[in-house]
Every structure is written in C-alpha cells, then in structure tokens.
Design brief:
Helices cover about 50% and strands about 15% of the residues. The chain is α/β, with parallel strands linked by helices. It has a 6-stranded mixed sheet with strand order 1-2-3-5-7-10, sandwiched between helices. A 4-stranded mixed sheet has the order 4-6-8-9.
C-alpha cells in the first residue's frame, strides 16, 4: 500500500491503497515503518504522491473505524481510539518536522485525513483535478489528524472557517490563490514538476536547509493537543456512530468522492 525509493538525494513515497489511500491501521503502520527506515537519511528532499487514479488520499478509513466502535460503549473503545490518534499525530508530526524539504504531488480527492497529510508537507504541486476538503462536520466530528492547527499556519482564519464549517471543497486554483498550493500545473504533470523541484532543492546545503525549515515551520504543539482532546470528546455522542454507519452502508461505493461533472 506504500512503496518508497531513493535516487540522487530524493526520496519518493507512493501511496497505493485501494480504493483511495484511506488511512487505517495498515496504512499507518506502513507510514511508521517508512519513517523509521529513513531516520538519519542523507536525502535532501521527499516527494509524496498517489498511484490511485482519482485521489491523493480520501482521508481516514471510516469503514475500519466504524467496525471498531459499532455496538460498543464509548468507555470500551476510547482507549483504542486515543492510541490510534496518538500514533497518527506522531506520524504527522514526524513528517512535518523532517529535516529535509517535503513536496506533495496532489491530484484528485484530498479530503479529511488526506488533506491533513498534505498539510504536513512543505510545498504542494497540484494537478487541476485536486480538491481539498474537510468533510468531518458531516460526521459530527472535527478533523483529528492535526489538520486545523496546521492549516492555521497557512491560511487566513476566514478561509479556515469556510473550509471547516461549510464542509465544501476548494479546487486547485482557489487553493493556489490562497497560498495553500505552491503551483498548479498541467493535468497529469504534478509528479514530473515535483521531481524537478526536488532536484533543485537537493542542490542546497542540508544543514542550512534543515535550519531554515525549522525556523519557518514550528509545530503548533498546544493546538495539536487541544484538537486531539476535542476529537475524542466528540465520540461520546451517538450521532457520530450513526453518521459513520450511514457512510459505511451507503450504496455508493465511494461516497466521499464528488459526482462526475460537479
């Protein structure tokens, strides 16, 4: 579900979990293993991209989540959920703070936890098909993988409120106009452009690069902790389980994806 390689100082991490790179226990373990394996690497850049045709990442694996909590009282599963969220945050924080430049080549759906994954990266190169969204309020929860605190580093508060409270998506052009995306490129060219950018980045002194990144991209530690607390508290409500159930039992095979032509 994930594969990675290194060439000429550039790491590439490919997400390839059908149907749309949902982040569940297996994807999480794969990301943890990847980060463990590259610890201490002398690579200068990392590119993250998707092999899935319609999505960068559709977010959390909601079917796996529903199966873990359906029919169980909150007290019985809270510890498991808290452990999963702690693991997710550790992975996201490690990606965020890697001492090299990280670049996302984004196409298609970049929703929920996938959007939160993209927000850990330093620069995003977007295909025109890319769409960014926080649909969590539809499930009675807030983003739980660190998205809002990271988004607060990137966008004005009005845009954050719009994304979170409306649940609507932003296309690549709007995301670029807001400064969320570094550049929008031709259809199908995001990975190629990201590779060119990574080669340019790889020319810089790694110690200077790491120091510059640490200076301009501090982790919002307190806000991340507050997000985790709020996310877990929201699962006390039965409406969350009901909303997850509606999602899981939808007749649409991928109900998080936009309709054709929308």
């Amino acid at each position: 579900m994930i594969r990675w390689s290194e060439r000429e100082g550039v790491l590439e991490l490919m997400l390839d979990q059908p149907p749309a790179n949902e982040i569940g226990s297996q994807m999480l373990s794969g990301l943890e293993n990847f980060l463990d394996e590259i610890e201490g690497t002398d690579a200068r850049a990392l590119i993250v991209y998707s092999a899935r045709e319609r999505a960068f990442c559709a977010g959390a694996d909601l079917r796996e989540l529903f199966a873990a909590i359906d029919g169980r009282p909150y007290a019985a599963y809270r510890g498991e959920l808290a452990n999963f969220i702690d693991r997710i945050h550790r992975v996201m924080d490690r990606l965020d703070a890697l001492p090299l430049t990280t670049i996302g080549a984004v196409h298609g759906v970049c929703f929920g936890g996938g959007f939160e994954l993209a927000l850990t990266l330093d620069m995003l190169v977007a295909d025109p098909t890319a769409r960014f969204c926080f649909p969590e309020l539809r499930l009675g929860i807030v983003p739980g993988f660190g998205g809002v605190p990271r988004l607060e580093r990137e966008l004005p508060n009005a845009a954050i409120r719009d994304l979170l409270l409306s649940g609507r998506s932003y296309g690549a052009k709007k995301a670029a106009n807001l400064g969320l995306v570094s550049q929008v490129v031709g259809r199908g060219q995001a990975l190629e452009v990201a590779r060119g950018l990574a080669q340019q980045v790889a020319l810089f002194d790694p110690e200077v690069q790491a120091a510059a990144k640490a200076f301009i991209k501090a982790l919002p530690v307190a806000r991340l902790a507050e997000e985790k607390r709020l996310f877990l508290e929201m699962f006390r409500s039965e409406r969350v389980v009901q909303a997850l159930g509606r999602f899981v039992h939808s007749e649409d095979a991928m109900p998080y994806l936009p309709s054709e032509g929308r």
